[in-house]
Amino acid sequence: MNLPFAIRTIRWMVRDTFRQSLHTKLFWVMLALTMVCVGFCFSISVSGDMPPTTYEFEIPAYITQQEAERIGLDKVKADGIRIINGEVSFGFGMIKVPVGRHRGDAVRFVQLWLAAALADTVGVLLSLLWTAGFLPTFLEPQAATILLAKPAPRWSVLVGKYIGVVLFVSLHAVLFVGGTWLAIGLRTGVWNGSYWLAVPLLVMNFGIFFSVSTFLAVATRSTVACIFGTLLFWLLCWAMNFTHLRLIAYPVDGLSGVSQTMLDIGYWLFPKPLDLGGIFFDAMRADGFSMKLPELIATQEKGLFHPELSIATSAAFAAGTLALAANEFRTMDY
Question: Could you point out which of 18, 76, 146, 325 has its C-alpha 20 to 30 Å from the C-alpha of 287?
Answer without folding.
Answer: 76
